[in-house]
Amino acid sequence: MAVKMSPWAQALSRFAASKAGSWFYLNVANPVDRRLLPATNGRISLSIGQPVLCLEVRGAKTGKVRRTPLLFTELDANLVIIASATGRPKHPAWFRNVVANPHVKVFAPGGRTGEYEARVAEGDERTRGWQAGLELYPGFEVYEGRTRGIREIPVVILSRAR
């Protein structure tokens, strides 16, 4: 089941899809949430009203632990994250890290904090994950328009590690 947003969160999503909103979330909220989400075990985020997790993964080149706050939704009891990079031409660094090191830690609200295995969704699973992402945050469609003809935005599925 996809995570549903309140009307307030929907208004915040429209703001986040704007250039000013993208700047705020990348330059203000993300640096704070990178520390705040792990410190509170995923319970508190500067991105009020939006489902945000902090993804912890080892760097593909350096092996250093990297943390990235990301919007998430759910699909078939898994978490879904979208590698949009706000519509930039290249995949985000966290995506390259997850492909190289799929065992990740997630700090997320609602008892979702824990160890996960990441995989890039393909086919029908990608379609359904992308749709779940759009239901959560219509701004992904704006980002898709920015990347059209350059790259397909990856959908990443996070499944609890066994």
Question: What do these coordinates show?
Answer:
With 162 residues, the protein is an alpha+beta fold. It has one domain (7-160): Electron Transport, Fmn-binding Protein, Chain A (Pnp Oxidase, Chain A, Roll), CATH 2.30.110. 39% of the residues lie in helices and 25% in strands. The chain has five helices and seven strands. It has helices at residues 7-17, 19-39, 93-100, 123-136, 139-147; strands spanning 52-58, 65-71, 73-75, 78-82, 103-107, 114-120, 155-160. Strands 2-1-5-6-7-4-3 form a seven-stranded antiparallel sheet, sandwiched between helices. α1 (7-17) crosses α2 and α1 runs parallel beside α5 (139-147). The protein is globular. The chain starts with 6 loop residues before the first helix and ends with a strand. The model has no long low-confidence stretch (mean pLDDT 91).
β-sheet strand percentage: 15-25%
Oligomer: single chain
Provide the residue-averaged pLDDT. 91
| Radius of gyration from the alpha-carbon trace, in angstroms | 14 Å
Q: What about the largest sheet?
A: 7 strands, antiparallel
Distance between the termini: 21 Å
Low-pLDDT runs = none
CATH superfamily: Electron Transport, Fmn-binding Protein, Chain A
Approximate helicity band? 25-40%
Question: Top keywords for this entry?
Answer:
alpha+beta, Pnp Oxidase, Chain A, seven-stranded antiparallel sheet, 39% helix
